[in-house]
Amino acid sequence: MNNGNASPVVFGFEYQVDAAICIFLREIYRTLSVRVEGRFQDIEVLRSDGSYEFIQVKSIHDPQKQYTNDHNLKKALHSLSRKKLTDIDSMSYCSNQKDNFIKNCKLFVDDRIIKYKYRDLDDDSRKRINDIIFEDSLDINTDSLSLLKIPYFQSDDIGTKKKAIIESAEKMLSDCSCSTYMAYDLVITWHSVLENVASSSKMHFVCTKEDFIYIIFAKLLTEKSTNISTIDESNREIVQKTYLETIRKKSMNYRTTNLIVNLYDEYRNTTTMPRYAEFIELNQSTLLKEIFGINDSSDEVIIETLRAIVNNTLDVRLYIKSIKEKINL
Asked: Global pTM?
């Protein structure tokens, strides 16, 4: 979608998807998966300790407009109260509203990502939340409640509209010792993947950390497609095409790149002069099975594509290892 002048409904769904990306990125080390349009709430996050965070999202079409009531907060609390939590689960209300999440509360006035637990709010804000819970007989344990602001604006310029989400991607990449230049493109791709499947009436889409991170690997591999060389130069164009098609298929994923790197590490321990070509020759059947689903091939294009994928994956293996380590994969 990505329409700066979208209707409130479309704008709200776009915000929901981008909020899920932002939440994932900010807590990716302890996150296993994120579900958009979940069974119980707008966003459902599974943590590595087995706990869930259930997030109700309420967007403001014009977040700069001054609001003098907490109508959205009340609606969010009503929705959150419908899911009974376990002792380790948590719940959050998320909005892009510039200020006054709660009447007269000035904690959310900055244009930055802000998250407060209920216990860290001022006395008046806690009282207002308690009043809503009491007046409407809501079943909510406030010890598990947080309020989260993720800025998001109407704009035809994606960099302006998604500024907070892009900055979160930049921070994650920087923390993983990767260049931040691809943050913008990654956010667009993540959004497209989540939006397309979350919009499907057939299922609620769960994006795992592996799914999320492979998009980074695919970006790195795509950029290296221009460096592909072939034994037979007449095959170069078709190999490049097959290479790009392959790394975008479901059969080429985090597990595949991880296998290539791990196999190469094992191979390096057996020789004093590791060479990509020798590694591929020794593991060709395994690699063909993993990437193409076949045990053998005499097709020059397939073999050249295999070499290009493996060579380029190994060229970026230090990035892959750094990302895995920093995000707990």
From this structure: 0.88
